[in-house]
Design goal:
Length: about 150
């Protein structure tokens, strides 16, 4: 994976639109109504969100985003690895990029919400490996048995 490149994405390309559509559809298949917090393409174009994609040549491997909650904290959003590239370390590289950007912005803390069901175990394991710890809801989230909330002190 030495040729992996992570770059800012303006969310106008077909490949990222397709990956995000798959992401949203998959979240709705696995997660009960009212518990899906994945953002669609339009929501990700918000000025408080920075979005990145990971590429190997012309092949899209995955994506991730950082939403500014306030001047001292951010939220990890839209972490997704394309099916064909799972278990290759793509999500780790994207998460490392997001953490470095949060540090560059001098954030004190990163937050995230992910699923509580078994299908989200790999995501929870990834975040735990990077030092994220479990906590209660943050920002506008409410307590939800289908959600897990985590935080990382920077």
């Amino acid at each position: 994976m030495s040729r992996l490149q992570i770059r800012s994405d303006d969310l106008t390309g077909k490949k990222i639109a397709d990956l995000l559509r798959e992401h949203i559809e998959n979240m709705h298949e696995m997660t009960p109504p009212g518990s899906v917090h994945a953002l669609d393409l339009e929501a990700l174009r918000s000025p408080d969100i920075t979005f990145w994609t990971a590429w190997e040549g012309s092949e899209l491997l995955g994506c991730g985003a950082l939403k500014e909650l306030d001047s001292r904290s951010g939220e990890v959003k839209s972490m997704r690895t394309a099916k064909a590239h799972r278990r290759r370390g793509v999500a780790s590289k994207i998460l490392e990029h997001i953490i470095k950007e949060a540090e560059r912005r001098a954030y004190d803390r990163l937050y995230l919400e992910t699923g509580a069901i078994p299908e989200f175990a790999p995501a929870r394991a990834l975040y735990t490996r990077y030092g994220f710890e479990y906590r209660g809801p943050f920002a506008d989230y409410i307590d939800d048995p289908n959600s897990v909330f985590m935080t990382l002190a920077l």
